[in-house]
Amino acid sequence: MNNNITCVDTVKSYLQQIESNKHLNAFIEVFEQDALQLAVSLDAERLSGKKLGKLHGVIVSIKDVICYKGHQVSAASKILENYTAVYNATLVEKLLQEGAIIIGRNNCDEFAMGSSSENSFYGIIKNGIDVTRVPGGSSGGSAVAVQMNMSMISLGSDTGGSVRQPADFCGIVGLKPTYGRISRYGLIAYASSFDQIGIFAQSIDDASLALEVIAGADDFDSTASQQEVPSYSTQLSSDKKYKFAYFKQAIEHAGLDKEMAAAIKKYFEVLTQNGHTVEAVEFDLLDETIPTYYVLTTAEASSNLARFDGVKYGYRATGNFDSLQAMYKQTRSEGFGKEVQRRIMLGAYVLSEGYFDAYFTKAQQVRQLLSNTTKKVFEQYDAILSPTVPTTAFKIGEKSNDSVAMYLADLYTVFSNLVGIPAVCISKFKHSNGMPFGLQIMGKHYQETEMLSMAKTIESTN
Ligand code: GLN
């Protein structure tokens, strides 16, 4: 490391990088002054000889669903336009304590609903490798920020793949830890039994370090696990031989790009040649995962988003309303975008009397079946390997008018959110269309150390 490089220099160079990639629309707001100020105090800290934080001078960006006190946060929605966070998310507190510099908030799909970053009130986000393509979603801006060196680490949320899918489309690492590993306090909720903070990074080492800083128990989030946080960054091993499973139905799925399927199968042979075991297991429920996910998450979203009513905070429609109902209706019709409205309606429908058992209860039952399957697989295998997305990054506009086609982009990612296991994707391959794609590793509950060790092994096995 060059000891002459200061935090101020670093911030300036990242600000420049953000400026020159403005056309990608990855940031809703850049916290230029704050970041520079923080850099000045961090530089002073270093000169004073104080013990430095684990993330001293690391440039971090956050998805616009994470609260940073005194800064705006909008979930990329008109309904929260000009809303200022009144407290720090727990993960933000932890980042700051370890000397990270938060450089700005990243654009994303409104309320984290989407797979392409085309649903933001602040406009679409473009993929830095090919600007005619989407970066994936919903944390598209966070992915592009790391892809184009506008931040070193970025934090997103992963409810059904929103970190892993854009990471795959952008050619970087995307990590979704076990449900409950990182506190959700200060994360704007989408579907609370699925939501988990996720990490974008250039390498498994970087992601591991960030995880160890932000994971852990939290009095403000009862779903955050009490389990001790290992020192991931120092505990990763890379010389073990693993027993991997893959779902036959996943690799043979008609929706999976043929070239991608071939590359992944070939890579399984490489792993075998390197002493690992890779075996196919049956997974009849694969096609059930997307409907199950969309029934449960829309139900949870319809309840979570009920609070945005124009009364206490956020956008309120103007006009003379003759009832409170009329004000709510107008506010929510103007404040929420199309996809968010669609999901609120879908969620209210599956929860409504007469349909509840047919949809919501049924989906809960499938969720239980999926957990049982997972348990069985993990009795015999260390991890499950899978593609991350069935295709590489698609063209802007290609799927925006076809919700079902868009939802299918989540085919391989929703499973781990349904059952709560950790998953990480690493970029390994390049498609003949020029776009990157990789491999997803799904590990056992709270065994991030093992899963990240496997990821490191895969990172270096070619
Ligand atoms: N694409 C999925 C959805 O739209 C995942 C979103 C997410 O993980 N936040 O629900």
Describe it for me?
The protein has 462 residues and is α/β, with parallel strands linked by helices. The chain has a domain at 7-234: Amidase signature (AS) domain (Amidase signature (AS) enzymes, Alpha-Beta Complex), CATH 3.90.1300.10. The chain is 39% helix and 13% strand. It is built from 16 helices and 11 strands. The chain has helices at 7-20, 32-47, 90-97, 140-147, 164-170, 204-214, 232-235, 248-251, 258-273, 286-304, 324-335, 338-351, 356-380, 403-407, 414-419, 448-460, and strands at residues 27-30, 59-63, 101-106, 153-157, 173-176, 197-201, 243-247, 277-281, 383-386, 423-430, 436-442. The protein has an 11-stranded mixed beta sheet with strand order 1-3-2-4-6-5-10-11-9-7-8, sandwiched between helices. A hairpin with a 5-residue loop joins strand 10 and strand 11 (436-442). The longest helix is centred in the C-terminal third of the chain and has 25 residues, at 356-380. The structure holds glutamine. Glutamine (GLN) is lined by residues 112-115, 138, 157-162, 190, 297, 410.
